[in-house]
Structure formats: structure tokens, C-alpha cells
Amino acid sequence: MKSVEQHISDLLGLVAVPEPTELDLLQAHGTVLAEPVVSPVSLPGFDNSSMDGYAVHAADLAEATADRPVRLPVVADIPAGDADPAAIRPGLCARIMTGAPLPEGADSVVPVEWTDGGTVDVAIHRPAQAGGFVRRRGEDVMEGATVLSAGVRVGAGEMGVLAAVGCRSVPVRPRPRVVVLSTGEELVEPGRPLGPGQIYESNSYMLAAAARDEGCEVYRHGFVGDDPVTVWDTLEDLLVRADVVVTTGGVSMGAYDVVKEVLSTKGTVEFTQVAMQPGKPQGFGTIGPDDTPIITLPGNPVSAFVSFHLFVRPVLRRLRGLPPNPLPSVRARLATPVGSPRDRRSYLRAVLSDPIAPDPVPAVAPAVRQGSHQLSALAGANGLLIVPEEVTELAAGEMVEVLVLPEP
Question: Which tens digits make up the pLDDT trace of 247-259?
Fold first, then answer.
């Protein structure tokens, strides 16, 4: 059996970072920037007011108090978007709205709350400071500054920055197109009646959702039976829409492990055993005229789930232009004892809890049901507790490493 690390390395060897593509802003949401974004403008692009109030010379209000307000003539109204506001001489002021350009000569803005709100003249009952309530040109971003680096994921905040500096489109790494396919004669589509010996198909839904959570475009084909010709014909038909194919089921040592039977003679697909539990049987390689990567996962639901996060996720991250980092991990204190088979690394579904004073370390408790077919504990798990290959028992209170699962 090969190591988890070696299998990850082998899978990453199947893919390379794709060439950039130019996408409109909304289409770029969730993608990764392929190049740095340099602002062609300053933000703000001009000195402007941060308040509704009056543009003034601060020196005119040095003696203003609540008992002895200073009264100034109002010589202009300046709304937001005014292209050519009038200049303001000493001893005068202009009514100004939030975001409106500061008129020439003015050096401060007095909030309307400091005044009587006059429109012909205005009584101001507090002194002003030069620069007060003024947004200076370029105080956020200067023209020519790099506002976003290559490799940044375009989320809501990044989208706002891109639009604010005038980008209509951006070069990004295209979203990977992932095809998910399950196999098995015993499978039934959810919502249909079950016959004897049948189960509802869940793996493709689970894996499609996990790939979509990773920012991919996902096509869930559903499932096919155990007929080798049908499986291969289906795979060939799906390649046109796939940057990577993920299958589940049919990769072990059984007499009806059809994926292994079909792909062993196609492309460069290799089937192997990884020193882990759950998820020992794995397969990977390329198929079709374009050497499309294919990753074949076990059919047991928990094995497929763990395998996705350990093996498929780094591949998808590389295809997105992100570092193929593993899941983040934390050190935690084990709440109950656990066992593990020798020479295999166990990944136990577990619940991480926040630290409770005075212990600064989080606690972790393994789920009660750890069978590779027992899917119910997945929904409540937020971590995978690691038991190393050389360890068969861990006592309560010992420190362990826990992989942190992505939040829904």
C-alpha cells in the first residue's frame, strides 16, 4: 500500500494550472484572478464630502460656539455628481451633499447637525478643523496601485473593488468542469420506490455538492449499472463536458467492480491501495482523446467523502489556480479513547468543540458510528481525527491532529 502523501502527489501530476480567460465581473464571481489588478484611477478620484453639510473655510469658524454661532451666506448648492462646483471665497459657504466634490477654496465640511440648516445663510455653532469630513483624493487607492493580487478568489468584497476601479472584466482561471458519476446495479434515484436489495444513490449528490463548494462547475450524471459497455459508453459521452471526471464505486476487488474492469484496459488508469481507513481502494489516470483526468473513488459513502477531501480537493484547487493545500488542521485533546488498525492511517469523523477555560485547547470526540457505510454521522461532523499508521490506540486526554472540514 502506498502512502496518502504519495497518492496526492500522483493525482496532482495529472493536472496543470489552466490558461487564463477573460470574464465579465459577475461571471468572475468565485473564480481566481490570473493576474494582478492595477487601478487605472484613484479612489476617491477627487476631494469630496463625507457628510451632508456645508463646505467652508475652517478659519472662518474659529470663534463659533453654541452661544455665539458664526453666520455665513450660502452661495451654492453642490449635489453629488456636480461636475463643476463653484469656488468658495473666505466668509462664504456652500451647501454640500455626501459624495459631492469639495469646491475650490473650501478646506472643511461642517455637518448639517452643527447648524440651523439654513439655505440662504446658515448659523454654525461649532468650530471646524481643516480637512474635517473631507475624503481626500487617493486616500483609499492611488492610481497605479495594485488593488488585488494574482491568486485571489473573487468574492463579494473583491467584486466591489474591481467595479470601483472601473474593471468591466478580469482575467481569471476558468472554473473546473467536474463530471460526477456513480456506478452500481443496486442504486435507485431518490424519490423512486425501492425494490428488494436496492438503496438510494447518495454519493453523486454528496460529491457534486462538495465540488460545487470548491468553486467548480459540476455536472452530476447520476449513476449507471454494472454493464461494462454501458459504463464505458457513458464515460466517453461525458468527456466533452469534463476537465476532470470523478467516479464512485466499482474500484475494489469484487467480481462486479465494473469501473476497475472497464478502465484497467483504457487510457493510463491505475488502481492502487492507499494505507488509510476508510478509502483504501483508489484509482486515477487519464482517458479519452484529450487525456482527461479521471479519479475513481470507493463506493462506500464515507470512503468517498473522505477521499474527496484528501485527494480530489487538492486537484480541484490546482485547476482553479490555487495552491493545492490540504485541509487546515488543528491540535485537539481527545475526549474518548479510539482504536485504529496497524499500518493504516485512520480518518475518523469527529466533532471539534471550542476550548473551555481553563484549558486553551479544543476538544475532539469521534462520531459513534465509524463504519465506511454509515453516512448519518457526516452531517454533524466538522473534522477528521487522524490516527497515524503506527498507532493502534489513543487514550482520552491525548493530543491529536484534526483536519477541519469546510463549513456548509
Answer: 998 776 555 578 8
Q: Please say whether the beta carbons of 17 and 321 come within 8 A.
A: yes
DSSP code of residue 141: B
Q: Looking at this protein, which amino acid is placed at residue 246?
A: V
Other C-beta atoms within 10 Å of 102: how many?
24
Q: Rounded to whole angstroms, how far apart are CA atoms 123 and 117?
A: 8
pTM listed for this prediction: 0.86
Look at residues 31, 267, 269, 43 and name the one whose alpha carbon lies nearest to residue 172.
31
Q: How far is CA 349 from CA 24, 82, 385, 393, in A?
A: 40, 61, 6, 16
> What digits encode the pLDDT tens for the residues 258-284?
888 888 887 789 999 999 999 999 999
370 in Cβ contact with 312 (< 8 Å):
no
**CA-to-CA dists, residue 169 to 24, 27, 40, 158, 165, angstroms:** 4, 9, 14, 13, 11
Residue with cell 496543470: 16
Please provide the DSSP assignment of 115-131 as one string: B---SSEEEE-S---TT
